[in-house]
Amino acid sequence: MVQKYFKPCDFEFRGLGLIKNGGLELREEFANYDASKLYDCEVKSKGENKACICGQILRGLAKPYECKVFGKVCTPKNPIGSCMVSGEGACAAYYKYAIGH
């Protein structure tokens, strides 16, 4: 059912960068439902905080506690990177369940 309405597209993921065919966009025949086309809106990226290592954490190259801002500046109440933003994020989960590491 997803293929009926959507087609793959390149997508920029926070912490990971551009992934070819990593996202989905509405097919042309459903363009009249696409808010980005209807309202001529542009999503602007704030960019990544240089102190944040979410990209490395998401790729399994680092642990949350190896980040210099983890648990100090970057907390669930003040998330710096995408890994701390949602409760399911790697850093948020580590903060909640393993902060004493």
From TrEMBL:
GO terms for MF: 4 iron, 4 sulfur cluster binding; carbon monoxide binding; iron ion binding
Pfam assignment, any one: HypD
Biological processes per GO annotation: protein maturation
InterPro entries: Hyd_form_HypD, HypD_1, HypD_2_sf
Family to which this protein belongs: Belongs to the HypD family.
Protein's name in the database: [NiFe] hydrogenase metallocenter assembly protein HypD
Keywords: Iron, Metal-binding
